Amino acid sequence: MIKFFEYNWQVRDEWFDWCSQLTIEELLKDRRSGVGSILYTLFHIIDVEYSWLRGIQGKEDVVVQFADYNTLEEVKYLSNTFRIEVAEFLKTNIDELKEKLIRVPWDDVEYTVDEIIHHIIAHEIHHIGQLSIWARELDISPVTANFIGREFKPVNSY
């Protein structure tokens, strides 16, 4: 599953590069469906990944506000900062935790670590699809979602 984190991070970084061609107004424009704007969607992906992985580790959730990270540079900074901690956790033997039950403060249901990890991966891929639709609505080619043919920066390098 670590390959999918590496994939998501690489694609996310490519979306950050893609976003640099847009104005801040276009990045913040409310879009149909999804969670709102292009920039907020990227922020949301990062926040969800970090919150769930802290939940797995039994750590307190760090609540971040979009108002504090509402530029492309700030969202990229947040991604890079949180990624370091996430990568450190992923370097551990996460397979030993797969069946461990987790309850997080924002949900009343217990989930296995395996379910949460799969959710995090699918969540980002889902929102990347939304970004792709919005890119096409802007008549700009989206970032490729292909997994095949990519060379990933290993988690160990973060």
Describe this protein with a few key phrases.
two-stranded antiparallel sheet, 158 residues, single chain, mainly alpha, Four Helix Bundle (Hemerythrin (Met), subunit A), 54% helix
Helix-strand layout with pairing:
Blueprint (H helix, E strand, L loop, with lengths): L1 H18 L4 H5 L9 H19 L15 H19 L10 E2 L8 E2 H25 L21
Antiparallel strand pairs: 1-2
Provide a descriptive summary of the structure in words.
It is a single chain. This protein is mainly alpha-helical and 158 residues long. 54% of the residues lie in helices and 3% in strands. The chain has five helices and two strands, in the order ααααββα. The chain has a two-stranded antiparallel sheet with strand order 1-2. Helix 1 packs parallel to helix 5. The radius of gyration is 16 Å and the shape is globular. The chain starts with a helix and ends in a 21-residue tail after the last helix. The relative contact order is 0.19. The mean pLDDT is 95.
- Total DSSP E strands: 2
Determine the CATH topology: Four Helix Bundle (Hemerythrin (Met), subunit A)
The outline comes out as globular
Low-confidence stretches: none
In CATH, the homologous superfamily goes by the name dinb family like domain
Tell me, what is the CATH class?
Mainly Alpha
Q: What is the mean predicted local confidence, pLDDT? A: 95
Q: In angstroms, what is the radius of gyration?
A: 16 Å
> Sheet with the most strands?
2 strands, antiparallel
Helix residue percentage = 40-55%
Number of domains: 1
Architecture (CATH level 2) name:
Up-down Bundle
**Roughly how many Å apart are the termini?**
17 Å
Q: Give the helix/strand class.
A: mainly alpha
Number of helices: 5
